[in-house]
Amino acid sequence: DWQMGSYIDEAVAKIREQVGDEEVILGLSGGVDSSVAAALIHRAIGDQLTCVFVDHGLLRLNEGDMVMDMFAGKLHAKVIRVDASGQFMGKLAGVTDPERKRKIIGAEFVEVFQAEASKLKNAKWLAQGTIYPDVVESGGTKTKKATTIKSHHNVGGLPETLGLKLLEPLRELFKDEVRALGVALGLPADMVYRHPFPGPGLGVRILGEVKKDFADLLRRADAIFIEELRNTIDPATGKSWYALTSQAFAVFLPVKSVGVMGDGRTYDYVVALRAVQTSDFMTADWAELPYALLKRTSGRIINEVRGINRVTYDVSSKPPATIEWE
Ligand code: XMP
């Protein structure tokens, strides 16, 4: 609409004025905030922006390709994709404690990003998709209980070590405004209205030790669940079950159980499906998904993902359970 149009014009003018002819680096994660920040800054300064996309091997199915298709393909932005999955898996080998896994993934992320950023010698700015609630939180005005229970890893803490000026064009916006801005900038609604995804990614959805094989199985199971949620419309509201849930995903349980397939016995891994409804992620109810949807999802996962022979549904609310399993 016209209001968003004039907002974009103002924001673009402000970025141009701040940055002048200097170069900017941005860490693209595939999440909403960094994506919208990238699209806005690219609109303002084009090739003066370089995005660095670190693939830690713990992303969702095809996520890396989708990010590249959108930003490099459609927007023609400069994007460096760093495939660091081997490096991350190496660091995570043998580690089972959830908080240690988070710390390792966070630290490795900073390291890989910095190594890449330091190659861009002309960059003077680091852009981040910080939004208003993040600003308020780090100012200590609002206390977020979840952070005391789990140390959230995000792309924070980079500027001092890199010696770059900080560019944060979304600092005054709430999440719904960021989404509207993203749509107005031409990002697909599917991307802008995606469920949140944690910084450590599948690293906290594979219980215990993270292994590439486990991540590969989990990615496929998760993609089936999400596809079924998107394709199942609730007749009462006309909305998909993806839209009716706040967050939904599969969790890999490194436990084997016995099954039967054809004439043979199987002894394979288990996934749990998790879907919650919440307004603030501080408390959450497990979603009362239709049985038919659960049935289709479980049938497809067991048939299509060789290596998984059992699917369970998590019926725990928060509190006392958390949304993620780790
Ligand atoms: P929990 O599991 O604490 O999750 O109920 C609440 C919300 O936070 C997300 N979450 C994270 N996000 N880094 C993130 O960026 C993390 O380490 C992390 N841990 C949990 C979770 O996905 C949910 O939306």
Automatic annotation (TrEMBL):
Pathway entry: Purine metabolism; GMP biosynthesis; GMP from XMP (L-Gln route): step 1/1
EC number: 6.3.5.2
Keyword set includes Repeat: no
Enzyme class: ligase
Annotated keywords: ATP-binding, Glutamine amidotransferase, GMP biosynthesis, Ligase, Nucleotide-binding, Purine biosynthesis
One term of GO molecular function: GMP synthase (glutamine-hydrolyzing) activity
Catalysed reactions listed for this entry: XMP + L-glutamine + ATP + H2O = GMP + L-glutamate + AMP + diphosphate + 2 H(+)
Binding positions for ATP per the UniProt entry: S29, G30, G31, V32, D33, S34, S35
Domain GMPS ATP-PPase positions: 2-194
Subunit structure: Homodimer.
Role description: Catalyzes the synthesis of GMP from XMP.
Protein known as: GMP synthase [glutamine-hydrolyzing]
Taxonomic lineage of the native organism: Bacteria, Pseudomonadati, Pseudomonadota, Betaproteobacteria, Burkholderiales
Residue window of the full protein shown: 203 to 528 of 528
